[in-house]
Amino acid sequence: MLKSFSGRLLILTTIFVMLAEVLIFVPTIARFREEYLMNRLERAQIASLTLLANDMIDPALEAELLRTAEVFNVVLRRDEVRQLVLSSPMPQSIINTYDLRDSAPLILIKDAFMQLADTRDGVIRVIGAPVQDAGSSIEITMQTVPLRDAMIDYGLRILLLSAVISIITASLLFVALRVLLLKPIKGVVGHMQNYALAPEDARRIITPSAGVTEVREAEEALMKLETDLTQALRQKERLAQLGQAVSKVSHDLRNILTTAQLFTDRIEMSEDPSVKRMAPKLVSSITRAVHLCESTLAFGKAEEPSPTLTVTALDHIVQDVVDSERLATDGAAINFVLDVPANLKVRADPEHLFRVLSNLVRNARQAIAATGQGGEIRLTAKDRPDYWVIDVQDDGPGLPPKAQEHLFTAFRGGARKGGSGLGLAIAAELVRGHGGTLELKETGTSGTVFRISLPKGDGTF
């Protein structure tokens, strides 16, 4: 029980209520003592009225009056004269005097606890104001033992009542929390356990139903988490199936491209000037396609192969990318602007960097072509102290919000209709393989800018 939330809550509630009752007990016991002494003063004043009515009373009657008032002596101060009204022998001497006429609360509390701590059987003098203006003051002497016993009895009754109140309060709070909070929480835990048995089953996703706001918020957050996880698991399964299919296609496509590569070797031997000018581009494109198929097959087995970092001229790679994309413009008025220093060299895998830039430029070209108007694609490179920066900028329509939300997630970040979103996911993975980053710097109606940052590492070539 001590390990459960409800059991600990029950115990803590009982302790806190008892603590509150103890704090209440402190002024209460002081108030009880004050009322006890005031009661004895009133009794003594009533007993003294008999003598005031008749100057001579029988000694036996006087003793009976004092015994009833539970005091030894009664002194009245009237007209600045102290008068011993009733008296009897005192068994002990007076050990303390208490004046109740102007006692502050803190003094009353201190006197009460000193009274409880003092176990001596003594006599105290108590001074108070008589009722009905029967004089300026009244004094009595009385024993301390009956007062202390009464205070202890009252304190025990208060503590017993406090314990009963604490247990009842804690029990009610325990039941209320079990019904309003713990039961819904256990329901959420049960849903989580049930969902864990088959996370691919969308029927097991929790439906928020709690009436408590905080628990309902937890259920809604859990529902979103489970929904995303179920979709991710389904996506993973589809990707696994797709990976197998792509591997098979890539295998056959590699064989076809290898055959085509043999034909291009013969085309290079042609004396036709146009053929001789276009042949190197064709050979380069087919070679890259063969390498891509081989990489795809490797990816199907494990993951994207690690980059082979070499020092390479960036402007050559950029020029190859632009030349390839120019052939695919289909007559669209797209202008390519290159701002890449001729002597700028970067440490990167040339094939990987070509694929990254090709994906980014192709996306920019397709975005501009979709508008039916012309546009500009600008590639800029800068050499900074710790890294190289390559920006791919276009003046297209910008990325829609949905595409920005899952920009680098395969099959979820497609920006155009029919797009798979693989291009940016592949590009981001390839850049991460270099230890760099691919980020969307800005997008809007004025265009989009992607930035590639490649670290220099130790900076040695």
From TrEMBL:
<keyword id="KW-0175">Coiled coil</keyword>
<dbReference type="GO" id="GO:0000155">
    <property type="term" value="F:phosphorelay sensor kinase activity"/>
</dbReference>
<keyword id="KW-0812">Transmembrane</keyword>
<dbReference type="InterPro" id="IPR003594">
    <property type="entry name" value="HATPase_dom"/>
</dbReference>
<protein>
    <recommendedName>
        <fullName>histidine kinase</fullName>
        <ecNumber>2.7.13.3</ecNumber>
    </recommendedName>
</protein>
<keyword id="KW-0472">Membrane</keyword>
<dbReference type="Pfam" id="PF00512">
    <property type="entry name" value="HisKA"/>
</dbReference>
<dbReference type="InterPro" id="IPR036097">
    <property type="entry name" value="HisK_dim/P_sf"/>
</dbReference>
<dbReference type="InterPro" id="IPR005467">
    <property type="entry name" value="His_kinase_dom"/>
</dbReference>
<keyword id="KW-0597">Phosphoprotein</keyword>
<feature type="transmembrane region" description="Helical">
    <location>
        <begin position="158"/>
        <end position="181"/>
    </location>
</feature>
<keyword id="KW-0418">Kinase</keyword>
<dbReference type="Pfam" id="PF02518">
    <property type="entry name" value="HATPase_c"/>
</dbReference>
<dbReference type="InterPro" id="IPR004358">
    <property type="entry name" value="Sig_transdc_His_kin-like_C"/>
</dbReference>
<dbReference type="InterPro" id="IPR050736">
    <property type="entry name" value="Sensor_HK_Regulatory"/>
</dbReference>
<feature type="domain" description="Histidine kinase">
    <location>
        <begin position="248"/>
        <end position="458"/>
    </location>
</feature>
<keyword id="KW-0808">Transferase</keyword>
<dbReference type="InterPro" id="IPR003661">
    <property type="entry name" value="HisK_dim/P_dom"/>
</dbReference>
<keyword id="KW-0902">Two-component regulatory system</keyword>
<feature type="coiled-coil region">
    <location>
        <begin position="215"/>
        <end position="242"/>
    </location>
</feature>
<dbReference type="InterPro" id="IPR036890">
    <property type="entry name" value="HATPase_C_sf"/>
</dbReference>
<feature type="transmembrane region" description="Helical">
    <location>
        <begin position="6"/>
        <end position="30"/>
    </location>
</feature>
<keyword id="KW-1133">Transmembrane helix</keyword>
